[in-house]
Amino acid sequence: MAFVGKGVLGKIDHDSYLAQGAQLSSTVTSTAGMYQDNNNEDYIKFENTFLAFYKMKLYNHTNFALRIQHERSNSKNLIRKIYLGADQLRGFQSMQYSGNEAIYSNVEVRQTVCEGNYVSLQVVPFFDVGYIGSDF
């Protein structure tokens, strides 16, 4: 069972991606007491995400992007642990780090150098940082 809440201040494009502005979303996932035997555990997971995307008017074809995410799970099951790696922190192997609580952030500036009908070339300096552990 999952509950999702989102708040958006800005523009969303036709694919439901944030085009400009900020978005705050929270998700709660739980087994909600559905497991009654000893082989499976009840668990709850919280995810909070802040996204910001801004088209910089000072520089043509330049965008600023920010993501801050916090996740927490009470599960001891390896499948339900929180993993950090290539999907969240660029430069690391996928699922390289695991724990019950994580916080990470991505900041990038995208500069379009060349744009055509079907392809574009961008330069993207970025900075990723994160922490994962059993408890903070």
Write the layout of secondary structure elements.
Layout: E1 2-12, E2 18-30, E3 44-56, E4 62-73, E5 82-84, E6 97-99, E7 101-115, E8 120-123, E9 126-133
Antiparallel strand pairs: 1-2, 2-3, 3-4, 4-7, 5-6, 7-8, 7-9
Summed up:
The chain has 136 residues and is mainly beta. 0% of the residues lie in helices and 60% in strands.
Annotation keywords:
136 residues; mainly beta; seven-stranded antiparallel β-sheet; two-stranded antiparallel ribbon; 0% helix
Structure description:
The protein is mainly β and 136 residues long. Helix content is 0%, strand content 60%. The protein has strands at 2-12, 18-30, 44-56, 62-73, 82-84, 97-99, 101-115, 120-123, 126-133. The strands form two sheets. Strands 1, 2, 3, 4, 7, 8 and 9 form a seven-stranded antiparallel beta sheet that branches. Strands 5-6 form a two-stranded antiparallel sheet. A hairpin with a 5-residue loop joins strand 1 and strand 2 (18-30).
